[in-house]
Amino acid sequence: MGTDALIPKMKKRASLPVFGLLVLGLLCWGLPPRMPVVALAVERAIQFRPGFNLFSPAQDVQVGRENAAQADKQLPILKDSAVDQYVNTLGRRLASYSPNNRNEYVWAFKVVNSRDINAFALPGGYVYVNRGAVEAAQDEAQLAGVIAHEEGHVVMRHGTHQASEKILAQAPLAILGGVLGESGSLMSQLAQYGLGFGVTSVFLHNSRSIEAQADQVGTYTLYQAGYDPRAMAQFFEIIQQKYPQQTMEFFSDHPNPEHRIERVDEEVPQLGPRKPWKTDSPEFESVKHRLLGLPAPPKARPQTRSSAPSGPVPSPSDRLTSYQGRGFALRYPDNWQVQENQDNVVLAPSGGVWQAQKGESVQAYGASISRYDLQNEDPSLGGATRQLIDSMRQSNPNLRVIRQQGAKVSGRDALSTLLENDSPIQGEKEQDNLVTVRVPSGLVALVFIAPASAYNSYKPAFEAMLGSFELR
Fold first, then answer.
1. What is the pLDDT of residues 430-448, one digit of tens each?
2. Which of 3, 113, 118, 309 is the most exposed place for a label (fewest CB within 10 A)?
3. Is the pLDDT score of 12 beyond 50?
4. The CATH number, out of the four listed (2.60.40.10, 3.40.1000.10, 3.30.565.10, 3.40.50.300), of the domain defined by the range 306-471
5. C-alpha to C-alpha distance for 361 and 370, rounded to whole angstroms
């Protein structure tokens, strides 16, 4: 079962740690060279300031480079010199107008040979644009909007900001001694905090507030580069209407901020007087025509058991160790590993979680904990749980409820729902115990996962974890 697929991407509660003077000291921002006086005034008025960060800009580049090395292995990169040259020329020109641009950033752009409409940026200026996004853009201004939005994530340092928050939540005192070394692989240093690399890393999971800020930076960049600043929001609106199936991945990775078009429209007057906007170019039309004439991208291979790590998955240890999460604590088998991302916390044995062909995180053993804001106003625990299960079925059509009963978790009323689903292990079924608890801000969901044939052997560990779970 994919951890991203099982627990759908619902609206999450914003949670930003406050760290007093340390945060204030890290709210620093730089200016690109030769910035025009008018642009400088606009930038100061809008205040493009990156948030709390434990990383230096040079470490942004290092962590981006190590992530890019993994992403290049996981993705079908389109190797076409004409397309690469055009996208890199456009991307670097846009970057020269980005606020907070720094000399350290590499600004390297690659096209992914996929018809899915998507794009993403890694720290330090490594930007990936899917072939499908170029083909879906109606003109150069819209493609420029996509790239400028991704560059907004880079210059606002969103990836390492989120990683910093997770490190601070797990090891608040360790930062006083310097969590991140100045040399060696950051990948190995960050792995101990459950910060994975490649296309499923924390650096690519954005909140609505982060997306809104990237929209703001992208709009500013388009204006300064001479494009209609509304083109970015127009692209998002058009693809959502014309390509609903192809944009599922995009809006999964880029949660759609509320009132996106209206927010952009409100920002445009602050940027300066209207200009004779550039909308298209012969170079864009030539590259788009070239892409449409290329062979179809390779189809992703279906998920099979061979994608999982080889060897048996170890049984849960009888010895438990403690984990302190945001707003909760629990104990779990000491031979399990902890992984955190934007959406949830995953605890699993070695071999219990792996990456599918498209980079999706797949879990066959272990547990996950998530917290959600609810779409309906103050529903009952039963109603909130049904809402969650209905959302889970959208990506798990064979999910079915076996039984449901009341329970107590951390002294609160809870529901325990035993589910049956298809296992990511080929030919297997799995059992999932979904335990839900209402909290003032929404719903906490714990899911205990194992193949049906192994569930009873995992049940004592699951019960011990649930019995130790405390909401704070």
1. 999 999 999 887 889 999 9
2. 309
3. no
4. 3.40.1000.10
5. 15
